# Entry
Amino acid sequence: EAQVTQNPRYLITVTGKKLTVTCSQNMNHEYMSWYRQDPGLGLRQIYYSMNVEVTDKGDVPEGYKVSRKEKRNFPLILESPSPNQTSLYFCASSLTGGNANVLTFGAGSRLTVL
Amino acid sequence: AQKITQTQPGMFVQEKEAVTLDCTYDTSDPSYGLFWYKQPSSGEMIFLIYQGSYDQQNATEGRYSLNFQKARKSANLVISASQLGDSAMYFCAMRTSGNQFYFGTGTSLTVIP
# Structure
């Protein structure tokens, strides 16, 4: 089944404890991206990647890192999480080559930082 | 500045009636794509419909249609014959030629039996 898989789905952590949210897709998509969803703010793009070793900042990259060492994986790293990073996070992927390429989303990862 | 605006935080519609969810966008990019996604209470993001900036005709997908008015920079979603399962949050989104995505704040739709 074509899908984007995120782990963990739920995580409670404490301020300053480094964490990584993994994202993997099995559709051979070049484009991968991360979003955070907060009430009243919709989804905001954190980082995106057009292909292996190519990453770019989205609208809200502060406090996050990403890497794209393999085409299928795009982990989101929070080096020193803070309570304002408590949010619902989505990973998504698509083909590139045109604006028509639809994002396929993962199921979401709910992160709470105490 | 690139932006998507959804001005209706919540909408109600009677079952079997049609409903329009508003979306306006702002971009100076001549090439862009507009999308609508549905997020049910279970949380997943479901793609509904796409409209390209150069498309001459409004997109349709089953009961969903996109009312694209380029000069007004609007891309409203029309859902015909509403069903109880249509109750969800709906997000309008824009993909720029630079491959950034912008989402609106969403509209919560409730279908009343």
